[in-house]
Amino acid sequence: MKKTNGIWSYTTQPLESEMYTYYFEVDGKRMTDPNNNDSIRDVDTYFSYFIITDGVADNYVTQNVAHGDVEKIWYDSSIKDTPKRRMSIYTPPNYKIDIQKQYPVLYLLHGSGGDENAWIEAGRAIEILDNLIAQKKCVPMIVVMPNGIANMAAASGENPNSDGKAKRINVESMLGKIEKAFVPDIVTYVESHYRVKAAKQSRAIAGLSLGGLHTLFISANNPDKFDYVGLFSAQTTNALDDKKIGKVEKIVQGIEDFASVFPFLSKGKIGEAISSYTDGISSGDLSIYNNLDEKLKEQFKTPPQLYYIAVGKDDFVKKLNDDFRLKLADKGYKYYYHETDGGHSWENWRKYLVDFLPRLFK
User: What are phi and psi for residue 28, nearest 5 degrees?
Assistant: First the structure.
């Protein structure tokens, strides 16, 4: 970095085609670039960004093609603490013109700390869809991007009934609540409000990281619903495995029994903390994660058209994905594997979406 005529500047080496994020530190304080209107939020952090084209990032820019529409929808939820939840829904070009045509659906899930805006902002999903559809590289489809954080009904700052903040670790979303509510709440809403082909062969589901965990278990617990499954850098096992789940349930019962003997524990902040913890466990459905081998066996009786697994060589979940692939291979379950350089990053997840979409609904 150098200063000339009062202006600081920095010149990088030539950069490959990609979407790059950055920020400034001024007197120890972090800030976005005041001269760049392009910014995104990832979890709780804001970044400025720029895109270098002539490569993979050509998919990430707004091109002179027909554009789909995005709606932010509030729907009724069976999750106790969030009776209304929000999702983003992309409809392809001509959806509102050809009112007779029905479309397949992709349910696209974000990772820990994300929300219904994550794939739109950092993931560039709308630009990717518009561009691939225009190039006839993927079929026109509806894409549903729900909020997958169990105790957050909508993106931070966009829920009129809560001022909850985004956070990077979301244990409350690993208690089975999201998976249990997904088909009855989200799929049912979409199929009753949009012109979709309501059949297994016309449904796909994919997710990154925590969303990969949700994708794995939503599809395994609903073997007749999704013919295309995508795991992007997926968390393939819940931190609460079968044995731990049993221990957690016993702990919850013990806490409730203890509080009933000592009523003062049900009052004040201690009572609120205990109530929040026990309610979180009891209102979930930890059985979602039990008996995965049996659930996979049922799912692969009539195997999905595509079971797609993608991960980076340096991703911290790669070992989990390798172990999961061995489990599938040991049973003879067919899957498609896509390994890239890099780690647990939007750089990879955008590429996986570009690779995944053309494989759907063929």
Answer: 80, 0
